[in-house]
Design brief:
This protein is an alpha/beta fold. It contains ten helices and 19 strands. It has two domains: 161 residues, FAD/NAD(P)-binding domain (3-Layer(bba) Sandwich); 207 residues, D-Amino Acid Oxidase, subunit A, domain 2 (D-Amino Acid Oxidase, Chain A, domain 2). The structure holds flavin-adenine dinucleotide.
Length: 419
């Protein structure tokens, strides 16, 4: 897959004959959902992306989880006990790329300030609220339009290997249940009765089961939603155009592409994933984002492939049945902004998956491996806010961008219409 989109072959210059209501900058899951939220309200929309098509950034081959109940913030009280191992590089699944960049340091300090009990609960519940809005928005979309993306109500199990971490997880479940999450704690026996593939999971102390979680292929979703938007809503697209600058004026907003085309609109929503921070800075906005690189691979199902999505919390790996394939995702490299996959890290993910569920996938027949950058805020709460007149930011969806995209799109367009 091309990642150097500047090398994309010559394409026609974008037309600038009319001023549209909204430019959506970025065609990942968040941008696609935002474009839909605008178009279904009758606004004219122009979608601009440097890539040759939608969903080719962090949204391409992620863990595929629509994780509406598991919204736990990354900065948590339990992090302190794990932090020394993580910081010293002793946690295989986690790597820290230290940097002296003031933005990185500021992000780190804010992250640490969010690890207290009160902030953790507040952040987890704020994301849960958005996740539940997202589920409703996804249901409404799919009632109106048929989109094939291996969408399934698979349910999800989080596996815990010791009584202490299970008890910590159970306490968070209790808080989230009183705010609408459907989750329960199961014994290993109860979990194996529901998901026989767990018979091969080593050292299981208990499971958090979220029966209403769903799965779906985010890239196929982007392609399907693009087709709907083009046929039913007359969306205009400008793929292959990298935006270099944003400008504000009395007439609205403008984006300037690297090859000096200027596109005008009454409103702009910035949904450019990890690049959103640099773009927001062009109009004087500092918004804290740090990349957290992750990996995935896709393979045929093995002899004991789970039907329910499985997260191994010790190894921080997710297993997901996507139609007739298994998607396995994991690893976290905080501060690593390089999109290039490191073959050693890809191999590590496969090795850890084998340890976790040895027969979940045909590890000898892997179709594809991939790496992507999760756009992380320090509190795990996405930034959806009006930044300047006519400009809304929709960024920083972190580990849960696929889950949160539909609700985030709705919120962003509601903000824009309130102006
Ligand atoms: C390994 C891994 C596993 C994950 N698993 C899950 C999961 O199971 N469930 C879940 O909910 N989330 C998951 N995520 C997180 C999720 O993938 C992201 O949060 C989400 O994809 C972010 O979407 P986005 O639209 O904001 O960004 P992107 O998908 O990166 O889209 C941004 C778009 O903006 C475009 N762009 C950027 N800069 C410019 C520019 N200057 N000009 C023009 N276009 C530009 C890019 O080309 C891109 O298309 C995972 C992430 C990773 C890496």
């Amino acid at each position: 897959m091309p990642t150097d989109y500047q090398a994309t072959a010559a394409r026609p210059a974008p037309r600038n004959d009319t001023t549209v209501d909204v430019i959506v900058l970025g065609a990942g899951v968040v941008g696609m959902a935002t474009a839909y939220a605008a178009a279904r309200r009758g606004l004219s929309v122009r979608l601009v992306d440097r890539a040759p098509g939608p969903g080719l950034g962090a949204s391409f081959a992620n863990g595929a989880q629509l994780s509406y109940a598991y919204t736990d913030a990354l900065a948590s009280p339990s992090l302190w006990s794990k932090f020394p191992r993580m910081a010293l590089g002793l946690d295989r699944a986690f790597r820290m790329h230290w940097s002296a960049d003031p933005d990185f340091l500021r992000w780190g300090l804010t992250f640490l300030r969010n690890t207290g009990h009160a902030r953790f609960s507040e952040n987890t519940l704020a994301v849960l609220k958005l996740a539940l809005e997202s589920r409703a928005a996804m249901q409404a979309l799919l009632q109106r339009h048929r989109i094939d993306f291996d969408h399934a109500p698979a349910g999800k199990m989080h596996l815990y290997g010791d009584a202490e971490t299970l008890a910590g997880a159970a306490a968070i479940v209790a808080i989230k249940r009183s705010h609408g999450a459907v989750q329960e704690v199961l014994s290993p026996r109860q979990a194996i009765d529901l998901e026989p593939a767990l018979i091969h999971a080593p050292g299981l102390a208990g499971v958090v089961y979220s029966p209403q979680e769903e799965v779906g292929d985010p890239h196929r979703f982007c392609l399907g939603l693009l087709a709907v938007l083009q046929t039913d809503y007359a969306l205009r697209t400008d793929f292959g155009f990298a935006v270099a600058d944003l400008a504000l004026g009395a007439e609205g907003v403008a984006v300037e592409t690297r090859d000096h085309h200027r596109l005008q609109a009454r409103h702009l929503v910035v949904c450019a994933g990890i690049e959103s921070m640099a773009l927001a800075r062009r109009i004087g906005i500092r918004a804290p984002l740090v990349p957290m690189k992750g990996y995935s691979f896709t393979a045929p199902p093995g002899s004991h492939a789970p039907a329910i999505s499985i997260t191994d919390t010790r190894r921080k790996i997710v297993f997901c049945r996507l139609g007739d394939r298994m998607r396995v995702a994991g690893l976290a490299e905080l501060g690593n902004g390089s999109i290039a996959p490191d073959p050693a890290r890809s191999r590590l993910l496969v090795a850890m998956a084998r340890e976790s569920l040895p027969d979940a996938a045909r590890y000898d027949l892997i179709d594809s491996t991939w790496a992507g950058l999760r756009p992380m805020t320090p509190d795990s709460v996405p930034i959806i806010r009006r930044a300047r007149p006519g400009v809304v930011l929709n960024m920083g969806h972190g580990m849960l961008g696929w889950t949160l995209a539909m609700g985030a799109g709705e919120r962003a367009i509601r903000l824009l219409l309130e102006e």
